[in-house]
Structure formats: structure tokens, C-alpha cells
């Protein structure tokens, strides 16, 4: 099953792309809630390149690495990658009426309910929108 989340960011496409892919920015926005954070991020944005973002509970109770390898990178337009567990993710960036619409579609995992996964990924995307608009 595929799940899609989306947001419209009030920032130019080039800026949205930069904030999405820059490790120094990723550590600022990549979390679903105030209880979580991303203390470390590495990103080699090219086909065959890899990324790792360490996501951790602020209270120290949990931590995991979110990793993957890029399958396709089309500058300012599209990113596709495969997560460490084999699931696929596609992200499109589109300029619409002065905003940048970012859409992520990902393969659901089988452990957690689809709605919980959608809500978590949407929360991260909402944090991305808020952070990017504050930086613009």
C-alpha cells in the first residue's frame, strides 16, 4: 500500500529544495513532534548516493537511523529513494501559484496502522513547511 502526504510551502522552489536536502536544515525540521529531534544528518544527494538521519526521543528513551539510497534525482523537481528495508519513496517539488507544493508518496510498512504512518509523515512535512517559511 502506498501513502501520500503533501504540503504547500510559501517559499521559492529552489529554497524548498535546499532546505529539504541540506543536513544543517534537516536537523532543524525532521521530527514529528516536540518530543523527538534529529541530532545528526548526512546527505549525499545523487543517484546512488545515500542519506542517514538519526531520529531520537528527546528524553533518550529511543533512537533510530532513517537511511536510504537515492534511485533518481531530478534537480528541483523529483527525488526517488529506497529505504534500508526496501520500501520506496517518491518526492515531487512543483511550483504552483507562487508556492512550492511538495508531495511524498511512500510504501507503507506492515507493523503500524496506515493512518498512524500517514499522520507521522505528515507531521514531519508540517514541521518542514513551518521551518522553511520561517527561514524564507
Note the quaternary state here.
single chain
Distance between the ends: 35 Å
- Mean pLDDT score: 97
CATH architect. name: 2-Layer Sandwich
Kindly provide the name of the CATH class: Alpha Beta
How many structural domains are formed by the residues? Answer: 1
Q: Could you estimate the helical fraction of the residues in percent?
A: 25-40%
Please tally the helical runs, counting DSSP H or I stretches of 4 or more residues: 3
What is the radius of gyration?
14 Å
CATH topology, what is it called? Alpha-D-Glucose-1,6-Bisphosphate, Chain A, domain 4
Based on helices, strands and strand pairing, what is the structural class? alpha+beta
Q: Please give the order of strands in the largest beta sheet.
A: 1-7-6-5-4-3-2
**Main sheet makeup:** 7 strands, antiparallel
Listing every helix as H and every strand as E from the N terminus to the C terminus, the arrangement reads EHHEEEEEEH
Residue share in β-strands: 35-45%
What is the CATH H-level superfamily? Answer: START domain
Amino acid at each position: 500500500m502506498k501513502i501520500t502526504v503533501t504540503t504547500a510551502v510559501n517559499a521559492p522552489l529552489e529554497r524548498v529544495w535546499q532546505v529539504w536536502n541540506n543536513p544543517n536544515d534537516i536537523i532543524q525540521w525532521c521530527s514529528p513532534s516536540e518530543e523527538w529531534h534529529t541530532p545528526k544528518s548526512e546527505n549525499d544527494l545523487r543517484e546512488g548516493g545515500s542519506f542517514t538521519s538519526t531520529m531520537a526521543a528527546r528524553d533518550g528513551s529511543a533512537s533510530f537511523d532513517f537511511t536510504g539510497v537515492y534511485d533518481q534525482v531530478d534537480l528541483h523537481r523529483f527525488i526517488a529513494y529506497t529505504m534500508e528495508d526496501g520500501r520506496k519513496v517518491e518526492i515531487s517539488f512543483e511550483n504552483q501559484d507562487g508556492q512550492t507544493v511538495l508531495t511524498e508518496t511512500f510504501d507503507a510498512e506492515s507493523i503500524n496502522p496506515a493512518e498512524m504512518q500517514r499522520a507521522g509523515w505528515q507531521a514531519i512535512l508540517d514541521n518542514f513547511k513551518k521551518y522553511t517559511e520561517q527561514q524564507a
